[in-house]
Design a protein that fits this description.
This protein is mostly helical. The chain has 6 helices and no strands. It holds the Pfam family Cytochrom_C.
Length: about 100
Amino acid sequence: MHIHLACLFGLALSPVVAAAQGAAPPSTQQCRVCHALDGTGTNPMIPNIGGQSAEYLSKQLQDFRAGRREDPQMSIIAESLSDDDIRELAAWFASVNASFTLPE
């Protein structure tokens, strides 16, 4: 799987500005394929990341990048992410307002 670097590094929007304007940062482009823009996994084997804490998301991406956590796709994707990309992605997906319905 090749990473389209223009999507990852093309525009330099801060996550705060992007979230305030409702625009997803460019680094979410590749994430959308599996996690959708709102962080909802597109199939049952893909976790929902929308609404997770930024600290948790950052740690997972750093672990994939460092090889401490492995997944055939995420390991490849994460290895090209900079620290700024990770902060931006974690801030975006953490800013998603996830809601849950408990079973009756």
